[in-house]
Specification:
By secondary structure, the chain is of the alpha/beta class. It has a single domain, classed as Vaccinia Virus protein VP39 (Rossmann fold, 3-Layer(aba) Sandwich), CATH 3.40.50. It is about 30% helix and about 20% strand. It has 8 helices and 9 strands. It has a 9-stranded mixed sheet, sandwiched between helices. Helix 2 runs parallel beside helix 3, helix 6 crosses helix 7 and helix 7 packs parallel to helix 8. It is globular, with a radius of gyration of 19 Å. It binds S-adenosylmethionine (SAM). The site of S-adenosylmethionine has 21 residues, from helix 1.
Length: about 270
């Protein structure tokens, strides 16, 4: 087993990425700081627009050579910087979708001089035309009412009715509020449902997912739950401990999924 598989390295991604072998990654899921000034226990989210784009470009240029030819990238952003980041990525990859994550924010208060922003923007990009995409793995089942409405004889036995419909580019998934059962101690933890959909569609079983900005380790957990491997980086040692805890809890709850949790999963730079 490669020493970087099923490990999250507690270090700056821009240093760690260089160590990964070329064309070894099936799927890149990146949830970088959005450039909005959030406190991740470091200054990573405090760059102005120009330096932010420079930094994005630097890690993208380190990460893309690690992607296999049929690999793809999902990147979480907001409207503030997605236009310029998408332009930069379109010079390197093919853009497939702009996915809107509707965070299902309840209608209370909000902006008074403009519209309240309640979505994140996710860019979906591929390296090559024949990128891996398993549509059947992410079809959305029809609800009972729709199935009933399609009960006329011409629809009986229709494969598409049983298999579900093709997912659309607006994903309505509740953000993880404080009491949510998945919630760990990280300010911008993403829901497993979203990351799982990306992995099912875009990483073959047994493949490897790279997340350069692991945060609470959602990508690592989702990968293990779905029988994929992971690798990645997180710069804040407290979050590295959190990732370890999440993977250990997963291994205890579902033996076999968290094989990585038996070993150290979040290693400091000095340990290597
Ligand atoms: C938006 S959060 C990721 C949240 C994650 N997707 C989750 O579900 O928990 C971004 C994370 O990137 C980390 N980070 C920022 N710059 C980094 C860098 N250069 N290398 C590694 N991690 C970094 C931050 O500490 C923060 O935890």
């Amino acid at each position: 087993m490669d020493s970087w598989r099923n490990r999250v390295f507690c270090e700056d991604a821009l240093e760690g990425l260089a160590r990964l072998p070329g064309e070894s990654i099936d799927l890149l899921i990146a949830d970088p700081p959005y450039g909005l000034g959030k406190d991740y226990g470091n200054d990573s989210d405090k760059l102005d627009a120009g330096p932010y784009l420079d930094w994005m470009t630097r890690w993208v240029d380190l990460a893309l050579p690690k992607l296999k030819r049929r690999g793809s990238l999902y990147i979480f952003l907001t409207w503030r910087h997605s236009p310029e980041v998408f332009v930069m990525l379109k010079q390197r990859m093919t853009m497939l979708n702009e996915i809107i994550w509707d965070r299902r924010v309840p209608s209370m208060g909000g902006s008074t001089r403009k519209y309240s922003s309640v979505h994140d923007t996710i860019g979906f990009f591929a390296k090559a035309r024949d990128y891996h995409f398993d549509l059947d793995a992410v079809r959305v089942p029809y609800d009972a009412a729709t199935k009933k409405a399609r009960s006329r004889s011409i629809f009986v036995g229709a494969k598409w009715l049983e298999m579900g419909y093709n997912p659309k580019d607006v994903w309505s998934v509740s953000r993880l509020h404080r009491e949510h059962r998945e919630r760990a101690d990280h300010p911008t933890q993403k829901p497993l449902e979203i990351i799982e959909r990306m992995i099912k569609a875009s990483c073959p079983p047994g493949g490897v997912v790279l997340d350069p900005f692991m945060g609470s380790g959602t990508t690592a957990v989702a990968a293990r739950l779905l029988g994929r491997d992971f690798t990645g980086f997180e710069m804040n040692p407290d979050y590295c401990r959190l990732i370890d805890e999440r993977l250990k809890a997963l291994a205890a709850a579902a033996p076999g999924t968290g094989s990585a949790a038996d070993a150290a999963t979040c290693e400091s730079e000095q340990d290597q």
